[in-house]
UniProtKB/TrEMBL annotation:
Coiled coil (UniProt feature): none
Pfam families: NAD_binding_4, Sterile
The entry's keywords: Lipid biosynthesis, Lipid metabolism, Membrane, NADP, Oxidoreductase, Transmembrane, Transmembrane helix
Species in which this protein is naturally found: Dendrobium thyrsiflorum
CDD domains given in the database record: FAR-N_SDR_e (cd05236), FAR_C (cd09071)
Family classification: Belongs to the fatty acyl-CoA reductase family.
Transmembrane segments: 393-412, 424-442
Residues making up the signal peptide according to the UniProt record: none
MF terms (GO), sorted A to Z: alcohol-forming long-chain fatty acyl-CoA reductase activity
Gene Ontology biological-process entries: lipid metabolic process
Function of the protein: Catalyzes the reduction of fatty acyl-CoA to fatty alcohols.
Name of the protein in question: Fatty acyl-CoA reductase
PANTHER family named among the record's database cross-references: FATTY ACYL-COA REDUCTASE 3, MALE STERILITY PROTEIN 2-RELATED
Top-level class of the enzyme under EC nomenclature: oxidoreductase
Length: 497
């Protein structure tokens, strides 16, 4: 793998970025502007009805964030003019043809100017409605690729996916592309068009029902997504539709250079532009938030299993290196951005760091009293965890049902509310459990995401001394120091407020 210096390669380039108000895209934009101020233009697709609304949303949700303080300090009074010159907010939506960009002149300008497309936009909700997931993760990917193919100067298309498209496969998970219609369950064939038609048909059927409501449609679509995902071998709607998105861009690319990046669990920044920046509740952050607030009754995982996480700035460094390395190379490349092979970290590290941190830095409730810190019971076996849930939640719920019956449904409202919450809790457990276990009941041995392709890319960056500016080697991370001094404080500051 040979390529010139990364920073120089970005000079005078025009880049289209979808999902621009999301966590990863913001990091990407900030990094490019910080290391290469001579980049020509960043077209940021923003879901909005018009240019004014897009610019306002971009300003409020991206530029004004603390993330851009380093750039503000660097450019001083010229910051606003620099941003105005380099960033163009484009109103649109990936679920529509031509990305929903209605301005014909703007479309023509973009098609004649764009060199790189970075497709980040996605819904990452595990329990999202199937119709919404198909629109964003599948049809959106298709629309992004079709738009890119109209760009006369295009050098590369980068599609950001997830490592968990591999589902519940065992062993060393390779950086391998999906074939057309490939599934994770035997010889079954996945017809994406048929899935889209299935959703349309089901929604029409719901409209014909007398008792159909928006809530009924919402629940039906959510359940349909889980049902179809598991039918083909995927654990949830999110990873199922992301896998379909990969298949589509692979089929549609023609001779276009395509890079598919599959990060694992993305966490707060390690170093850049400063340590600990994060937005939104990521998968493991729910554990930290619950523990901090004293609302985490227990935790289920094999704490000696690897927890594959990677800081957001390392992911962005890898993405930038990928688009430079594969510009104008007419092939498809797959990359895992992970830590489980090179520097695995166990769940026990997170548990220990959390206990140490909150012992030294206790939180206080709304009443001003210190939240008492208690060791959270960790269940290594799913069967034992289910027994705990049975005793802690199901039995009291069943007792309430009996009491409700005796007292002529006096407590029906309370019972129905708690019953819904319990069922939802059990559903969440089924959805999230594969990400807490990598052996034991889930698999007889550890699972790792192979990153051989990424290692080759790392070696190539070293030849040009780019590895200092674009560090994406997890071996450089001291996980204990990272979680204790960077990630946990970052979650408390930016997620818990």
């Amino acid at each position: 793998m040979e390529f010139g210096g990364i920073v120089h390669a970005l000079e005078d380039k025009s880049i289209l970025i979808t999902g621009s108000t999301g966590f990863l895209a913001k990091l990407f934009v900030e990094k490019v502007l910080r290391i290469q101020p001579k980049v020509k233009r960043l077209y940021l697709l923003v879901r909005a009805s018009d240019t004014k609304s897009a610019e306002k949303r971009l300003q409020n949700e991206v530029i004004e964030k603390e993330l851009f303080d380093c750039l503000r300090k660097k450019h001083g009074k010229e910051f606003h003019s620099f941003i105005t010159e380099k960033i163009c907010a484009i109103p649109g939506d990936i679920i529509h043809e031509n990305l929903g960009i209605e301005d014909i002149n703007m479309r023509e300008l973009m098609w004649n100017d764009i060199n790189m497309v970075i497709h980040v936009a996605a819904t990452t909700n595990f329990y999202v409605r199937y119709d919404i997931a198909l629109n964003i993760n599948v049809i959106g990917a298709k629309n992004a690729m079709n738009f890119a193919k109209k760009c006369s100067k295009l050098e590369v298309f980068l599609h950001v996916s997830t490592a968990y498209v591999t589902g519940e496969k065992e062993g060393l998970l390779l950086e391998k592309a999906f074939g057309k219609g490939e599934t994770l369950k035997g010889n079954m064939y996945l017809d994406i068009d048929a899935e889209i038609k299935l959703v349309e048909r089901r929604k029409k059927e719901l409209l014909q029902l007398d008792n159909s409501t928006m809530d009924v449609e919402k629940m039906t679509m959510k359940e349909l997504g889980i049902e179809r995902a598991r039918h083909f071998g995927w654990p949830n709607t999110y990873v199922f539709t992301k896998a379909m998105g990969e298949m589509l861009v692979g089929q549609l690319r023609g001779s276009l250079p395509l890079v598919i990046a599959r990060p694992t669990i993305i966490t707060s920044t390690w170093k850049e532009p400063f340590p600990g920046w994060i937005e939104g509740n990521r998968t493991i952050d729910n554990i930290i938030v619950g523990y901090a607030k004293g609302t985490l009754p227990c935790f289920v995982a094999d704490i000696e299993s690897p927890m594959d996480v990677i800081p957001g700035d390392m992911v962005v460094n890898a993405l930038i290196a990928m688009v430079v390395a594969h510009s104008n190379q007419q092939a498809e490349f797959i990359y895992h951005i992970s830590s489980s092979v090179r520097n695995p970290v166990k769940y026990s590290i997170l548990e220990q760091c959390g206990y140490r941190y909150f012992s030294k830095n206790p939180l206080f409730g709304k009443n001003g009293k210190e939240i008492s810190l208690q060791k959270v019971p960790v269940f290594k076996k799913l069967a034992i965890f289910r027994i705990f849930l049975f005793i802690r939640y199901w039995l009291p719920l069943e007792m309430l049902r009996v009491v409700n019956t005796i007292f002529c449904c006096l407590f029906s409202k309370k019972y129905n509310e708690l019953s819904r919450k319990y069922k939802f809790l059990m559903l969440l457990i089924d959805l999230y459990i594969p990400y807490c276990f990598f052996k034991g009941w889930y698999a007889p041995f550890d699972l790792f995401f192979d990153d051989a392709n990424l290692e080759k890319l790392r070696m190539a960056t070293k030849k040009h001394n780019d590895n200092q500016i674009f560090d994406f080697d997890p071996k450089n991370i001291d996980w204990d120091e990272y979680f204790y001094n960077i990630h946990i404080p970052g979650v408390l500051k930016y997620v818990c407020n």
